[in-house]
C-alpha cells in the first residue's frame, strides 16, 4: 500500500475519519426525523456561543485531556488500557480521602495533596493488571475491563457502607471542607471578566495543560520515554537492546493509571465537591477516542479533548433543546473510535490514490 | 436455606444464566476463529432493542427474535469488515461498536415510540411464554426430584432450552465436524488452513456471523422473555460477564455452560440478600457478589487456578502471503 506523507497521516486521516463519523451521525439524525443543520447550530451555540457554554466545554475538555493522556502513555508502550474509567473512579476516591482527611486552609495546599492522592489511587488500580500482564501474560485489555467493574462495585460499597455520613440518603461522601474548593474560571482574576456566571471549568484546566507538556517531555525527552516507545514499536528489539519489558509495562501503566486518576481533581474536587457514584461518567472511555483521534500525541490529545468537550456540552444542549436524545453523543463517540481506531486502514486506502502520482514523479 | 428457597434460587439462576450462556457461546465461535470480540455487549443490546421494538409492532415474539438476530448480524458484519477485511484493531472495533450500540438503541427506540428510549411493554404472543415440560404432573410426587423438575427445569421460555441445546450442538460442531476442525485451526494457525486451500477470510466471516446469530438470540431473550420490552442499557454489562465466562471456561463449550451457570448463580444470589444472610449468618455486600465474576476471572487469567490460554492467532489479522 502507498505510504502516505506524514502530514496526511497525522492530519488528513483523523479529519476524514471525523467527517465520516459526522456524516453518518447526520444521516442518523435525518433517519430519526431530526434536522442535522439545526442540531449543529444548537451544539455550536450551546458549547461555544457564550462564556457559560465555554465554561462547560473546557470543563469536559480538562477531564478528557487527562484520560486521553492516560491512554496515550500506555499506547506508546503497546498496552491498550481500557481501564481509565475505573482508574478515574479510584482517583476520585483518593481525592475524597485527602480532602476529607484535614480541614484544608487553602486550595493551594489542598490541590497538590489531592493530586498525589488521585494519581496514587489511579496508579494503584492500574498496578494489578500491569503486573499480571508483565509477569503472567494476562491480557491487559481483559483485566482492565474486569477492573472497571470491580472499581464500580468497590466504590458503591464504600459510598453506601463506609463513607456515607449517618442520616444521609444518597450514597456519597460528606462535602469537602471549604478550603479544598478549587477556584472556577469565574473566580480567577482576569478570567472572571469573561466568565461572569458560575462555571464548572476550574484551575485544573491549567494542570491539564501542564500534564500535556509533561507527557510530551516524558515520551520524547527522557530515557524512560525512549524505552517506552522502543518497547511499543518492537518488543523483541527493545528486549535485545537491554530494555526490561517488566519495567516498561509496569511504569507505563502506572503513569497511565495515575493520569487517568488525576482526572478526579477536575470533577470530584473542582466541580462536585464530594465523591458521588459513577463520578467519572464515562470520561475514562472517552479517553480512548481522544487518544486515537489525537494520534497519541499530547498536542493531538489536547485538540481531540477539546473536540469531545464541544461534543459533550453541545450534545447536552441538543438533548435539552431539540427532540434528538443526548445519547447521540455515544453514537458519535463510537463512530469516531471505529473510524480512527479500527477502520484507519480503510481511510488510508481511500486517500492513497491522491498521493500516488506524486510519488511516481519523485521516483 | 430450605429446599423450596434453593429451588427458587436455582430457577432464577437458569433464567439469568441463559443470556450469559448464549453470549458466551457466541464469543466462543469468534474467538476460536482468531477474532477477538469485546462487542458482545453491543450486539446483545442492539438485538434486545430490535426484538423489543419489532415484537411490539407485530405482536409476535418470533418475528422479534428474527429482527434481533438481524440487528446483531449487522453489527457483527461491521466488526467483520473492520477486523477481517480492513485488518483493523479487533479490540478497538469491539469497543467502538459497543458505544455505537449504546447510542443507537436509545436514538431508535426514542424515535419509534417516544417513551424515553424504552419500547412499549410486551404482552401475550409478543413475549416468549414459559413452557411446561412433559410429565411435570406425573413426576410431581417423586420426592426431591419432582419439585426440582417442576420448578427448576420446567417452566422456562423456549429460548432457555435452545441455549442449553446450543451447548452440545456447539461441542459437536467444533470437535466432530470438518468445519469445526477448520475453525479451530484458523484461530491457532491460519497459515496451515490457507495452505490446505481453505479460505481464512470466509471461515472467519462465518464464525463472526455465528457470533452475531447467538448474540441476537441472547438479546432477544433479554427483551422478549426475561423482561417484557427493551429499556436503555438493559444488558447491563452481561456481554462483559459472558466474556469473562469465556475465559473462565478456557474457550470450551461444556465449560462455558458451567461457568455461565456459576455466574448466573451469583447474579441470582445478589437478588436475594435475605437468603445469603440466612444461610451464612453474616451480611455479604451485594456489590461483592456483583464484582465476584470479574474477580474470579482475573484470578483465572492470572494463571493461579489453571491457566487460560487463548487461541494463538487471536487478535492477529491474517495477511495472505503472495
Automatic annotation (TrEMBL), chain A:
Its main location: membrane. GO terms for cellular component: plasma membrane. Pfam families: BPD_transp_2 (PF02653). Keywords: Cell membrane, Membrane, Transmembrane, Transmembrane helix. It is found in: Cell membrane. GO terms for molecular function: transmembrane transporter activity. This is ABC transporter permease. It is a multi-pass membrane protein. The chain crosses the membrane at residues 12-33, 53-75, 110-128, 140-160, 199-219, 240-263, 301-324, 330-351. It comes from the Bacteria. It comes from Paenirhodobacter hankyongi.
UniProtKB/TrEMBL annotation, chain B:
GO terms for molecular function: transmembrane transporter activity. It is found in: Cell membrane. It is a multi-pass membrane protein. Its main location: membrane. It comes from the Bacteria. GO terms for cellular component: plasma membrane. Keywords: Cell membrane, Membrane, Transmembrane, Transmembrane helix. InterPro entries: ABC_transp_permease. The chain crosses the membrane at residues 46-79, 91-113, 148-174, 207-231, 251-271, 291-309. PANTHER family: GUANOSINE ABC TRANSPORTER PERMEASE PROTEIN NUPQ, SUGAR ABC TRANSPORTER INTEGRAL MEMBRANE PROTEIN-RELATED. This is ABC transporter permease. It comes from Paenirhodobacter hankyongi.
Amino acid at each position: 500500500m502507498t505510504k502516505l506523507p506524514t502530514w496526511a497521516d497525522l492530519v488528513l486521516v483523523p479529519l476524514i475519519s471525523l467527517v465520516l463519523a459526522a456524516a453518518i451521525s447526520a444521516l442518523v439524525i435525518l433517519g430519526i426525523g431530526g434536522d442535522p443543520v439545526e442540531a449543529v447550530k444548537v451544539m455550536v451555540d450551546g458549547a461555544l456561543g457564550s462564556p457559560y457554554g465555554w465554561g462547560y466545554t473546557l470543563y469536559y475538555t480538562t477531564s478528557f485531556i487527562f484520560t486521553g493522556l492516560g491512554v496515550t502513555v500506555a499506547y506508546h508502550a503497546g498496552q491498550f488500557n481500557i481501564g481509565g474509567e475505573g482508574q478515574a473512579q479510584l482517583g476520585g476516591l483518593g481525592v475524597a480521602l485527602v480532602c476529607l482527611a484535614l480541614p484544608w486552609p487553602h486550595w493551594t495546599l489542598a490541590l497538590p495533596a489531592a493530586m498525589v492522592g488521585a494519581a496514587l489511587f489511579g496508579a494503584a488500580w492500574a498496578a494489578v493488571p500491569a503486573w499480571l500482564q508483565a509477569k503472567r501474560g494476562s491480557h491487559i485489555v481483559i483485566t482492565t475491563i474486569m477492573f472497571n467493574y470491580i472499581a464500580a462495585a468497590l466504590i458503591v460499597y464504600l459510598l453506601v457502607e463506609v463513607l456515607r455520613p449517618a442520616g444521609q440518603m444518597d450514597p456519597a461522601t460528606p462535602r469537602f471542607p471549604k478550603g479544598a474548593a478549587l477556584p472556577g474560571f469565574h473566580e480567577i482574576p482576569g478570567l472572571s471578566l469573561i466568565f461572569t456566571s458560575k462555571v464548572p471549568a476550574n484551575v485544573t484546566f491549567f494542570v491539564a495543560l501542564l500534564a500535556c507538556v509533561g507527557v510530551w517531555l516524558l515520551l520524547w525527552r527522557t530515557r524512560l520515554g525512549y524505552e517506552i516507545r522502543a518497547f511499543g514499536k518492537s518488543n523483541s528489539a527493545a528486549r535485545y537492546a537491554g530494555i526490561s519489558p517488566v519495567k516498561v509495562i509496569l511504569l507505563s501503566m502506572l503513569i497511565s493509571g495515575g493520569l487517568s486518576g488525576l482526572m478526579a481533581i477536575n470533577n470530584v474536587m473542582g466541580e462536585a465537591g464530594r465523591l458521588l457514584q459513577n463520578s467519572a461518567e464515562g470520561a475514562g472511555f472517552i479517553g480512548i477516542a481522544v487518544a486515537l483521534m489525537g494520534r497519541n500525541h499530547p498536542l493531538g490529545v489536547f485538540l481531540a479533548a477539546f473536540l469531545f468537550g464541544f461534543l459533550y456540552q453541545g450534545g447536552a444542549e441538543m438533548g435539552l433543546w431539540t427532540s434528538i436524545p443526548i445519547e447521540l453523543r455515544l453514537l458519535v463517540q463510537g463512530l469516531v473510535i471505529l473510524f480512527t481506531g479500527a477502520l484507519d486502514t480503510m481511510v488510508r486506502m481511500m486517500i492513497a490514490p491522491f498521493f500516488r502520482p506524486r510519488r511516481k514523479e519523485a521516483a | 436455606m430450605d429446599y423450596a428457597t434453593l429451588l427458587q434460587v436455582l430457577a432464577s439462576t437458569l433464567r439469568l444464566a441463559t443470556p450469559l450462556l448464549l453470549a458466551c457461546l457466541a464469543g466462543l465461535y469468534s474467538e476460536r476463529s482468531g477474532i477477538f470480540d469485546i462487542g458482545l455487549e453491543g450486539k446483545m443490546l442492539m438485538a434486545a432493542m430490535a426484538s423489543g421494538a419489532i415484537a411490539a409492532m407485530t405482536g409476535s415474539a418470533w418475528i422479534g427474535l428474527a429482527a434481533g438476530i438481524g440487528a446483531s448480524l449487522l453489527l457483527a458484519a461491521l466488526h467483520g469488515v473492520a477486523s477481517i477485511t480492513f485488518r483493523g484493531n479487533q479490540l478497538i472495533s469491539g469497543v467502538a461498536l459497543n458505544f455505537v450500540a449504546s447510542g443507537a438503541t436509545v436514538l431508535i427506540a426514542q424515535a419509534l415510540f417516544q417513551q424515553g428510549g424504552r419500547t412499549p411493554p410486551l404482552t401475550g404472543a409478543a413475549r416468549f411464554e414459559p413452557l411446561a415440560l412433559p410429565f411435570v404432573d406425573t413426576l410431581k410426587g417423586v420426592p426431591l426430584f419432582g419439585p426440582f423438575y417442576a420448578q427448576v427445569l420446567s417452566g422456562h421460555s423456549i429460548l432457555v432450552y435452545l441455549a442449553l441445546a446450543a451447548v452440545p450442538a456447539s461441542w459437536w460442531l467444533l470437535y466432530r465436524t470438518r468445519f469445526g476442525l477448520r475453525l479451530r485451526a484458523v484461530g491457532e494457525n491460519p497459515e496451515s488452513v490457507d495452505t490446505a486451500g481453505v479460505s481464512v477470510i470466509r471461515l472467519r466471516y462465518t464464525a463472526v456471523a455465528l457470533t452475531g446469530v447467538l448474540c441476537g438470540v441472547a438479546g432477544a431473550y433479554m427483551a422478549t422473555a426475561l423482561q417484557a420490552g427493551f429499556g436503555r442499557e438493559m444488558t447491563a454489562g452481561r456481554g462483559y460477564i459472558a466474556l469473562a465466562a469465556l475465559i473462565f471456561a478456557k474457550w470450551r463449550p461444556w465449560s462455558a455452560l458451567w461457568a455461565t451457570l456459576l455466574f448466573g448463580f451469583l447474579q441470582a444470589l445478589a437478588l436475594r440478600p435475605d437468603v445469603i444472610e440466612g444461610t451464612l449468618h453474616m451480611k455479604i455486600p451485594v456489590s461483592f457478589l456483583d464484582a465476584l465474576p470479574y474477580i474470579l476471572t482475573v484470578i483465572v487469567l492470572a494463571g493461579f487456578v489453571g491457566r487460560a490460554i487463548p487461541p494463538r492467532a487471536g487478535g492477529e489479522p491474517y495477511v495472505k502471503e503472495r
